[in-house]
């Protein structure tokens, strides 16, 4: 008797994939050691390009924000390493959650948000996107609704 088994189906990366990538990175790196807290604008740098996720380190001076955006088809997770960040999530209305270090947030590929440092000191966060972040859609809030402003592709970062 013989049996055939289907090929394993490759699972679509999820926020759990991104969260696991963050945990792996943090277990072997100290991202805070390389942070320059004197730069007056938000900065971001891709610190790892892995097979399952990309990892980005973001520095947030007081008052800085991302603006409304999504991450294309990528799921993600971010960890606040220092300070605090407020995430506004769009579901037809904006709802806010403030994360303090060591807070972690996961989200799927349909997630639209704006992240802001309302604090008085610089915040630092580490973000993972699975699969690799290829595009982001930027939105503008117009008369109580989000409208697509533009789509940014990886080549422009």
What is the H/E string? HEEEEEEEEEE
How do the strands of the widest beta sheet line up side by side?
1-2-8-3-6
The named CATH superfamily = Jelly Rolls
Q: What multimeric state do the chains show?
A: single chain
Task: Give me the CATH fold name.
Answer: Jelly Rolls
Q: What would the principal axes of the Cα set say about the shape? A: globular
How much strand?
35-45%
Structural class assignment:
mainly beta
Helix-residue proportion: under 10%
CATH class: Mainly Beta
Give the name of the CATH architecture: Sandwich
Domain count, please report it: 1
Mean pLDDT equals 90
| Gyration radius, in Å | 17 Å
pLDDT < 50 stretches: 1-10
User: Distance between termini?
Assistant: 56 Å
What key phrases describe this protein's structure?
157 residues; mainly beta; Jelly Rolls; five-stranded antiparallel sheet; three-stranded antiparallel sheet; 1 helix; disordered N terminus
Summary, kept brief:
The protein is mainly beta.
Structure characterization notes:
The protein is mostly beta strands and 157 residues long. The chain has one domain: Jelly Rolls, CATH 2.60.120. The chain is 9% helix and 44% strand. It has one helix and ten strands, in the order αββββββββββ. The chain has one helix at residues 15-28, and strands at residues 43-49, 54-60, 75-82, 84-90, 94-100, 104-107, 113-116, 123-130, 135-142, 145-153. A five-stranded antiparallel beta sheet has the order 1-2-8-3-6. It is globular and about 45 Å long.
């Amino acid at each position: 008797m013989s049996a055939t088994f289907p090929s394993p189906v490759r699972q679509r990366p999820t926020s759990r994939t991104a969260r696991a990538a963050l945990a792996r990175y943090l277990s072997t790196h100290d991202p805070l050691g390389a942070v320059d807290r004197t730069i007056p604008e938000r900065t971001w740098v891709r610190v790892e390009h892995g097979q399952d996720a990309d990892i980005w380190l973001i520095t947030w001076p007081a008052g800085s924000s991302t603006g409304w955006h999504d991450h294309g088809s990528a799921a993600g997770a971010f960890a606040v390493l220092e300070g605090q960040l407020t995430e506004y999530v769009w579901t037809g209305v904006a709802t806010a959650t403030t994360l303090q270090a060591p807070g972690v947030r996961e989200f799927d590929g349909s997630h639209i948000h704006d992240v802001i440092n309302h604090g008085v000191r610089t915040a630092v966060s580490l973000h993972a996107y699975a699969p690799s972040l290829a595009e982001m859609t930027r939105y503008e809030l117009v008369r109580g609704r989000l409208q697509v402003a533009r789509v940014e592709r990886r080549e422009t970062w």
